[in-house]
């Protein structure tokens, strides 16, 4: 388990997390990105923005 950077809850990830994998916190529902694998480390996932063709 890894700690959510948003709410400090424990987040369950795959046995072997993959770099850049997106997981969801079960408590606060934040989308989190695996930014480190040894040791496992999570960060808030960047939000995708629409450019609407600009």
Automatic annotation (TrEMBL):
List the InterPro entries. Answer: LysW
Q: Which domain of life is it from?
A: Bacteria
Q: What is this protein called?
A: Lysine biosynthesis protein LysW
Q: What is the lineage of its organism?
A: Bacteria, Bacillati, Actinomycetota, Actinomycetes, Pseudonocardiales
Q: What is one Pfam family matched by this protein?
A: Zn_ribbon_LysW
Please tell me the species this chain comes from: Saccharothrix espanaensis (strain ATCC 51144 / DSM 44229 / JCM 9112 / NBRC 15066 / NRRL 15764)
